[in-house]
Amino acid sequence: MSAHRVVALTALTLSGLPLSARAQNPPDTGRTRPTCWTARPAPRCRTLVLTEFGAYLDASSGAARFLGNAGLMINVSRRDAVGASVLVDLGGVAGIGPELRYRRWTSGGNALDLAFGARGPIAGVDHGAVIGLVKYSFGPYFGLTLRPELVRRETPPNVWPVTQPVKGWGVGLSLGVEIGSWPGAAAAAVFGLAKLGSFLSHGTSIQLTGLSGPK
Q1: Dihedral through CA 193, CA 15, CA 105, CA 103, nearest 10?
Q2: Cα–Cα distances in angstroms (integers) from residue 159 to residues 166, 169, 170, in the given order
């Protein structure tokens, strides 16, 4: 299955989860809560717990990406929230990095999120990146996201007499959808366990193959 179809199928699944969550979520009573997993602007919530999962498509390579994000934000006014989170690239060998985040609440509990941070290296892919985020959320469960990156890459030498790898910076951009609150946490956990199971199965297969003697 192509990366475009994987992301499209995941996006359709993610877009359906918020509707299910909204149907099961009890009505908002209007009380001020010190900590909210389902994020709302002040005065409904003071501290926001972030648990997000997203499916992305790399604009240059067309590769699928799956990212998890967890952190905290504080509503500093009725329209503004600030905080930090940790981003985890769940595809392949995970790259991890912190983000500083700002949220501007708009009408109806929607929000615009901006973030800036850094990501560690991904083995065999790059040497780390400066990362950004532009996200518009339609309520607490679903959002459309752009993730620009300034990536540190290393290109093998291919022109004589250059004998050392050439290091430089490149620009990347990923487009995707994210879900938040408990649906985001559940999706990240399921995806992470599936990746772990695949890794363990692959490792066991390699060990068994290595133990087999010559015929």
Answers
A1: 30
A2: 11, 19, 20
Q: Is 70 exposed, middle or buried (0-12, 13-18, 19+ CB in 10 A)?
A: middle
Q: Work out whether strand 45-58 and strand 33-36 pair parallel, antiparallel, or are unpaired.
A: parallel
In tens, the pLDDT along 11-62 reads: 555 555 555 544 444 445 557 789 999 999 999 999 999 999 999 999 988 8
CB contact at 8 A, 104 and 112: yes
CA-based R_g, the chain, Å: 20
Write the pLDDT tens digit of every residue in 169-181: 889 899 999 999 9
The rounded distance, in Å, linking the Cα atoms of 111 and 141 is: 11
Quote the pTM value: 0.74
Backbone region of residue 124 per phi and psi (left: phi > 0; alpha: psi in -120 to 50; beta: other values) = left
Farthest CA pair distance, the chain: 73
| 104 neighbors 80 (Cβ within 8 angstroms) | yes
